[in-house]
Amino acid sequence: MTYYTDLFSPETYEAFSKSDRTISGFRMRHKNLASRVNIGDKLICYLTKLSRWIGILEVTSKPFVDDSPRFYEADDPFAVRFKVKPLVWLEVDKALPIHEPEIWNGLSFTRDLPPNSNAWTGKVRGSLVRLENEDGEFLEAAFFKQEHSGRSFAYDVEAYKKYLLPRVRGEKKDIPVSVPTDEDSEDTEIVAEQSDVRESIKIQALLADIGAKMGMKIWIPRNDRSRVLSECKSGNPSILERLPL
After folding, report:
1. pLDDT tens per residue across span 51-62
2. Angle, alpha carbons 234-238-240 (nearest 5°)
3. Nearest to 43 by CA among 144, 134, 129
4. Average pLDDT for residues 192-203, to the nearest whole number?
5. Domain ranges of the chain
């Protein structure tokens, strides 16, 4: 039996937590690494951004490829998958911070380093990195102990919420975006004269014109829409009522 890392972002942690927790997925670039993992091996799960150990999953199948939506509503990138059995899965406030002295001093790759060192991070820069049995066994025991004790560790809740913003799929990574909703107030304080058009309205109108000429559908925040359309030179561009993420 071998231990491997399984990295979760706050977003994928939340998605997995809300699922039946029987499938763990990895990106296609991990396919070769996944082929080394055997039934009975264990995935030690780590939460990025918060630097916390969050759980342990026992592998119950060989890897398989399945891109059906599971962790994303569409175009799910975590297509290399294992069936797993969660042995321990901790809530965010119960997850074990790697800098907690008991954890830091118990791991072979951190115990001899000063707390402000980054020399240990190579172990958690990617998923399916093999851990020494000593470290895997230590963390497994720590998980079961924590599950029993239920000790809480403070974290910045507001910062964590920002990690859960809607994301737009980029070529190399997903980018968090803040999208105004139709419920946002449409009352805007007008500082300039009515004959003046805010620079941002002009820019939005120019972008809408470019999009229309490229044959795209256009989304404009509702509280700006009438003013932007009045500045558009492309006539009546095709307008989206909702922005699809």
Report:
1. 999 999 999 999
2. 135
3. 129
4. 65
5. 3-168, 179-231
